[in-house]
Amino acid sequence: MKRIATRLKKDAMVEMPNWPNEKCSEVPQRIQGMVSVKRRKRRAINISRKFHAELSNGILKFFPRKKTGIATEPELQIDLAKATVMYDEKRIVLILKVANEAHTLIPLDDSLDRWRDAILKHRLYRQEAV
Length: 130
What we know:
9-stranded antiparallel beta sheet, single chain, PH-domain like
């Protein structure tokens, strides 16, 4: 019974469309906010960390929070043109797959719809530019 339940969860993921099928006519608006990011691995224990995320011109940057404020250099940077992006509305989660890594992104401040729409627009814009 457990196997069936996990298969159903995996099938709920929806993949975002790519550039030739859809196009972005205007420059997308910059978006930023707090997110929880977790590396997806096969290990039983995966630690999620909170970051200040900034999405501009198709590049998603994650800045660690420090006691003095937000760091100036990003700890993690993802080019959305090269990433496969999937989302699940039931679990309120976005999954970004790049090369051999996958990251789970959970918006903390804002809604999933806002981040999903912004990532889609920035991804199409970046794919057109590249």
